[in-house]
């Protein structure tokens, strides 16, 4: 007489594996700091650099064609040392956003005084110049107006967030999995009467929770520090895009951690891939704008992640269409998941 073997319920086992994955951070505070604190430090440093980039004198000021000749003549007579007048064409706000001049003088029709346009980080300099160009003891004869920064000024923020998610996917997830295999820890999984996908789904779920935390912190803190004034629908959409992007990056980390034969050589591959996606994946340099590097950038998942995030958060000009990037990331994730489940090795060499 044969007794039927009852399969164990999967949900409690899934929760146990999830707690086991999170327990790693309880034991290793260094890994938690690498995952959350250090990337936020880079965000703070980049934001400080953004506001500190006004640099030393000289200060360049452009003048549009709307400025009256007598105003220009008066400026030449009272111009303080270090203020350089440069030729420009086009609107004042656009020239400031494009960086053609640090300050731009314009005079709108019917306005009582000329206006000096500047970015937010150069507002104090514009106010000092307005006072210096005015007669002593009188109110400033020039108004100061802040020109909204273009998307190009903040392109580093989505790039930093994707770099942070790459670190989570490749080193905190993939390299840890490869290390566990090399130590023989994962051989115990053979004793568990559960499907392999349950183990990896628990691992991916816990990492997605961390990715959600990273995304929320980055988007909200970046919005506050840089004065983006993002609407709540844009904030929520940006966080959602970042989490979906992290799923594709996590699938890469899990696939490599599951299939590489050796920890010593595998950790170098993780480093190479990380650097390749940072420098060739549009995170820092616009490689998709150049024919020589566009094809390489297209086949890197980080390119499509940052492309979608910049479009969502900053209305940034697309490198590829939304449909192209979404289709690539879906296909890439499916291929990585198939490779993980079909080629998984319980052990690896040191």
TrEMBL record:
What InterPro entries has UniProt attached to this entry? ABC2_TM, ABC2_TM_bact-type, Nod_factor_ABC_transporter
Q: Where is the ABC transmembrane type-2 domain?
A: 122-347
Question: What does the UniProt entry say about where the protein is found?
Answer: Cell inner membrane; Membrane
Q: Which Pfam families match?
A: ABC2_membrane
Task: State the membrane topology.
Answer: Multi-pass membrane protein
- Coiled-coil regions in this chain? none
The UniProt keywords, alphabetically, are: Cell membrane, Membrane, Transmembrane, Transmembrane helix, Transport
| Chain segments annotated as transmembrane | 29-52, 154-175, 196-220, 232-255, 267-285, 320-341
List the PANTHER family hit by this protein, alphabetically. NODULATION PROTEIN J
| Family the UniProt entry places it in | Belongs to the ABC-2 integral membrane protein family.
Name-wise, this protein is Transport permease protein
Specify the species.
Massilia mucilaginosa
């Amino acid at each position: 007489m044969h007794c039927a073997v009852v399969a164990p319920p999967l949900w409690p086992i899934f929760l146990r594996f999830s707690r086991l994955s999170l327990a790693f951070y309880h034991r290793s505070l260094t890994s938690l700091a690498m995952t959350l604190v250090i990337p936020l430090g880079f965000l703070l440093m980049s934001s400080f650099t953004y506001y500190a980039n006004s640099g030393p004198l000289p200060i360049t000021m452009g003048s549009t064609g709307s400025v009256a000749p007598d105003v220009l003549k008066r400026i030449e007579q009272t111009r303080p040392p270090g203020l350089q007048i440069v030729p420009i064409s086009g609107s004042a706000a656009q020239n400031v956003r494009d960086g053609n001049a640090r300050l731009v003088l314009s005079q709108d029709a019917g306005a009582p005084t000329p206006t000096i346009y500047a970015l937010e980080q150069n507002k104090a300099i514009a106010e000092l110049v307005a006072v210096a160009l005015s007669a002593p003891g009188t109110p400033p004869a020039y108004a100061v107006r802040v020109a909204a920064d273009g998307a190009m000024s903040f392109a580093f923020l989505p790039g930093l967030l994707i770099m942070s998610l790459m670190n989570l996917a490749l080193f905190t997830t993939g390299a840890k999995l490869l290390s566990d295999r090399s130590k023989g820890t994962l051989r115990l999984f053979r004793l568990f009467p559960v499907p392999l996908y349950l183990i990896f789904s628990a691992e991916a779920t816990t990492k997605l929770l961390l990715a959600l935390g990273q995304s929320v912190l980055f988007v909200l803190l970046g919005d506050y520090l840089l004065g983006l004034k993002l609407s709540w629908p844009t904030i929520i959409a940006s966080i959602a895009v970042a989490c979906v992007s992290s799923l594709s990056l996590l699938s890469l980390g899990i696939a490599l951690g599951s299939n590489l034969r050796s920890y010593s050589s595998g950790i170098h591959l993780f480093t190479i891939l990380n650097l390749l996606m940072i420098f060739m994946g549009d995170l820092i340099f616009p490689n998709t704008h150049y024919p020589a590097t566009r094809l390489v950038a297209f086949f890197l998942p980080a390119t499509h992640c940052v492309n979608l995030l910049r479009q969502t958060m900053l209305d940034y000009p697309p490198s590829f269409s939304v449909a192209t990037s979404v289709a690539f990331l879906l296909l890439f994730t499916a291929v990585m998941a198939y490779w993980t489940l079909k080629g998984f090795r319980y052990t690896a060499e040191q």
